[in-house]
Fold:
Amino acid sequence: MYLDNNATTQVDEAVKEAMLPYLAEVHGNPSSIHGVGRDAKEAVENAR
Structure:
């Protein structure tokens, strides 16, 4: 059992699964003008 959440908190499994595509595929700078950056910007805007 993990009881020390002072320094960090374990990521919920559902959150981790939702994040995986962005960590592996959509990893561009959302301020960039190239295609990967535009994909990242779209992902940020959709999350809002």
